[in-house]
Amino acid sequence: MAPPELPGDFRRSLLDLTLAPGTDARALSDETHRVPVVVLAQGTNLATPLESLRGRSVLLTSEKQLPTVLAAIALDGIARRILLCLPDIAETDLPAIVSEGEVDAVVSDGTGPQPPAHVPRVACGSAIHPADVFLQDRNAPTEWILFTSGTTGRPKMVVHTLPSLTGPLDDGLKVQERPIWSTFYDVRRYGGLQILLRALLGGGSMVLSSASESVGDFLVRAGRSGVTHISGTPSHWRRTLMSPDANRMAPRYVRLSGEVADQAILDHLRQAYPQSDVAHAFASTEAGVAFDVRDGLAGFPVSYIDQPGGKAEMRVIDGTLRIRSSRTSSGYLGTAPRLGDADGFIDTGDMVERRGERYYFVGRREGVINVGGQKVFPEEVETVLNRHPAVQMSRVWARKSPITGAIVAADLVLREGSGTLADLRESILQACRDQLPAHEVPVSLRAVPSLAVGPAGKLLRHD
Fold first, then answer.
1. pTM for the structure as a whole
2. Distance between CA atoms of 287 and 312, rounded to whole angstroms?
3. I want to staple 377 with a disulfide (CB 3.0 to 4.6 A). Which of 80, 163, 278, 363 is the partner?
4. pLDDT tens for each residue of 242-280
């Protein structure tokens, strides 16, 4: 079923844009439901007429992603504001979120964080109920509110619009007809939402992940669904390569973002998926997508910096990457600090170092370990550790020291069959001594069976 012809001045809402490519084979799916894209023209998953939510600020909350995705598609161009509530948001933070977001309606399937009882509720689910929605007036310039993934304090609420979210999608990536996209990310986070929008606007299908699903079960489902394009953080991918089900899927395109993509993980992914193009990208909730790298090498070319007129302009100031583009958000809601400097460049907080004709990410500014007044970036040490053939994954952290204030410690997940840490310790430390200054070499190593990854797919760094 093709969508009806639209007037020339009709605002291109997400529903409108999603249906434009049109094919009965396209679908959105999770571990329990499959929703053909074509039925989105016939109704919504909301248990109320859309007209009752026109001009409202709506908080979407659910443990599962699919109900939220279906509601967001229906509400874009109708609601004044859509807030994509993450399932790990603390309920104690919700009163402030409701106030600062001027929330006057909650759409929920009854799961996920629940805001104060005085806010009107609208039920939603994973099924589409017939309704005359396509002919609705969808001219509202809806704001999309995403939450940052900070580890401390209440997440900040970042304001985007559909144009700022979809601007990065035209990046020259060649995609075959009817791709099937997926991501380890929750699509309510910026990285996951980018993949969802690629699928919806590019004529593809989308296989959603689930927090309740094991890595192995998700890989099996991705393989069974024929996923062709998939993204995740380096930590997601390290856990994937540790799974016996890693070979259950055969993607054509693998993408990394959200953490430092070192050469070891890029090489291991090329070995695991030789039929795939492996790329890594840089993006943040505030700054949007800056670039992706498809040459198979860690870091990015120096030529990306100080190039005016590009889709994203970048500078390196005091060692941190700054970004300005039409893809960046318009700011924060509420009492969060101002976004961007006087020239409109956003400080990402990601530290980079130039080596020859390439910049390399060395870590987050706030994550630095101070060893007797000398800086150590945990990610830089992890890059060296992960390069060792016996190390599958590592986490570097600060151990208190009465002499230097802190010393460098490391937890290691060893590759199966590589031997014990007692056998490998000297080899691993020697590799660190060969490649790192003395103050960056771990003083202690500890073998662990696994390393925790947070809801954003990033390595949890608190002790």
1. 0.90
2. 9
3. 363
4. 999 999 999 999 999 999 999 999 999 999 999 999 999
